[in-house]
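tool_call predict_complex ligand=KG4
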Amino acid sequence: MPDNSNDIFGIGIESSCDETGIAIIKNGNEIIANPVFSQIDLHKIYGGVVPEMASRMHLEKFPALLQEILNQYRSEFNRASYIAVTVRPGLTGSLLIGYYLALGIKTVLKVPVIPIHHLEAHFYANVLDNELFKNKTLEYPFIGLLLSGGNSSIYKVSGLGKLELIGDTLDDACGEAYDKAAALLGLDYPGGPEIEKRAKSFYESNPELKRGNIETENPLPKILKDQNRNQCNFSFSGIKTALYYFIRSNPDHDTDHLCWCFQERVFDIIERNVKHALSLTKFKNLVTGGGVMSNQTLRKRISSICDEMGVKLYCPSPSLCTDNGAMIGALGYYYFKENVIYPHENVISSKTEFFSSY
Ligand code: KG4
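tool_result ok
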């Protein structure tokens, strides 16, 4: 589509954890450029993100990513009307690198810097290029389901910046549980993609499961904690402990089988909370985001819940489930249009941001 003078360009900057990202977004939903450098290989040997190393890597990578964007999209960059940057939650050192990059760009472009709450931005990954969903706008109110390496939360979202936390994790975040389960099973970090791959391979080579004979195949317990009627909290530590004891007393276990068992039990917890949040609120839109949502089996499972309950599901393209600058630029566009430059005061944050290393 050719550019016209009414087009609004914006820059999105992300550095809250171990992804370094900078993007140019047009009119809030079109990605012009979205290079992301993932630091996974750097942190892999430590089994998780090392904060000091993450900050140093952002410092090294941002100039290269910025140059890459300027080489190809200098005119769009120069036309940017706002700079959106993640300011929370995240690793302080890493956030500061992104924030000071935003301030540096501001001195050149002379446009506002819009501080963005990273968790809210995950939902706006859905308005970007998406094979499933073509409307390119979110319908309020919606239930926001965020499942990532640092957070597992459910929000009631009634508008831009209007988020009410109705579910959080009582212990591990969902992706964190995957990563810890992978470590117990001797698999690489990050655990999610590897556990998903092995679970799928187990499922596909097991005719009993395909016939729907599920319960007989899973020795791990269903752990669904009792909770207050108005809450949808997650807890993943029990299933992780059950996995630990199972591995200890069954040294000859089949790793693919255990990946499938663990994953099914994690999905049981997610499924219960999603159903509960939807029936509690009667909302007809479910908007998802975060790295765990790139799991294809989980997407199918949540999609069938939505079909059953007559709810419209929004799932970002898998590459936009993980952290990136585009989703920051997309959310920034809406705040810019509303002329809200300090939006994050309105966002109720997830408790996990204070407790986890995220
Ligand atoms: O959103 P994200 O990139 O940000 C952080 O919180 O850093 O999520 C990363 C998390 C990791 O814990 C990873 O194991 C998990 O998402 N993850 C997955 C899958 N892909 C990534 N979990 C389950 N299945 C996947 N396919």
